[in-house]
């Protein structure tokens, strides 16, 4: 299997059978080799820099009803909030001061924050912080809306595809949501010139090893600039409240394989990974990740933005914990960079 890892690291097209074998292995020596090769590829493209993104969770209202998510519209127990423009600008100001040069505006699909309001917000952020990148992560919208936000200055867009398998997508979402529409949105975003991030949950209900193979093959075909992946974690007030969480091991394997398959991808060690394991962020880096997204939202908002139970809201997951993050990264041989942290690949097809 080591020879196969070498071939992947050298850019060979991945094959289902071998990927499945790697995803199933628990052989310590093979795993150590996999992570070491992933680190090598990461270092070739990004050195030992860790890119940080200031995450602003600005609304937890959502019109959707995804079965796995604590913000789903049928969850009456979720405490809903919406940050004002002023609060958002204050978060960004604080973030800028701390050294963040990318702001990620993340929220549910909230009619209270429509096309125009977000457009104005993007303009305000780009005007006040011209040396910063603005990333949007606010779900599915029309091409027209995506275009307006792009023209207002948005640089990047995160929209996880959640699963590469349409039948599995139906198991995770109600009828009104469709995998095909999701894919269409992702292609539209790429065509409009965004740096695009997709991604999936590891070990969501019904997500077997065979699905993970599909995720990797899909990523290789779609070639996103970023990939957000983390373990599924149940939320008690959702239909999947009793389902088991995805594992640390499988998440780390997926990170390493994504790094080998898409060598120059921007790959965060996600909050979900930091939630299932205390040292999840460092372990993620050691498996090939190169991005961390600390939370810049006001503390009252973070506690409400509960996608899953136990979501980490403090320590190195939080912007004011940046010093702790820096120390942890330095102890592991990495360096937190003060930069926009753009994608470093060659311009690719759309
Ligand atoms: N566990 C892990 N990740 C989740 N997300 C939503 N609910 C959960 C959960 N229970 C992720 C989804 C979504 C993003 C906003 O958060 O992948 O795209
Ligand atoms: Fe809404 Fe996103 Fe949660 Fe689905 S996953 S309910 S779209 S916030």
Ligand catalogue: 5'-deoxyadenosine, iron/sulfur cluster
| Low-pLDDT residue spans | none
Structural class: alpha/beta
Strand and helix order: HHHEEHEHEHEHHEHEHHHEHHE
Q: Specify the CATH class.
A: Alpha Beta
Inertia-based shape: globular
Total domain modules: 1
The CATH superfamily title: Aldolase class I
Overall pLDDT confidence: 96
Distance between the termini: 33 Å
Largest sheet: spatial strand order: 2-3-4-5-6-7
How many extended strands?
9
How much β-strand is present in the residues?
5-15%
Helix content: 40-55%
At CATH level 2, the architecture is: Alpha-Beta Barrel
Helix segment tally: 14
Major sheet: 6 strands, parallel
Q: Which fold name is given in CATH as the topology?
A: TIM Barrel
Radius of gyration computed on alpha carbons: 19 Å
Structure commentary:
The protein has 350 residues and is of the alpha/beta class. It has one domain (2-337): TIM Barrel (Alpha-Beta Barrel), CATH 3.20.20. 43% of the residues lie in helices and 12% in strands. It is built from 14 helices and nine strands. The strands form two sheets. Strands 2-3-4-5-6-7 form a six-stranded parallel beta sheet. The chain has a three-stranded parallel beta sheet with strand order 8-1-9, with helices on one face. Helix 5 links the parallel strand 3 (102-107) and strand 4 (133-137). Helix 3 crosses helix 10, helix 5 (115-128) runs parallel beside helix 6 (143-152) and helix 9 (209-222) packs parallel to helix 10. The mean pLDDT is 96. 5'-deoxyadenosine binds next to loops.
SSE diagram, text form:
Elements: H1 2-9, H2 16-24, H3 28-46, E1 49-52, E2 54-59, H4 85-98, E3 102-107, H5 115-128, E4 133-137, H6 143-152, E5 156-158, H7 166-172, H8 179-191, E6 195-202, H9 209-222, E7 226-231, H10 248-261, H11 271-276, H12 280-286, E8 291-292, H13 299-304, H14 322-331, E9 335-337
The protein binds 5'-deoxyadenosine and iron/sulfur cluster.
Iron/sulfur cluster binds at residues 62, 64, 66, 69, 71-72, 108-109, 139.
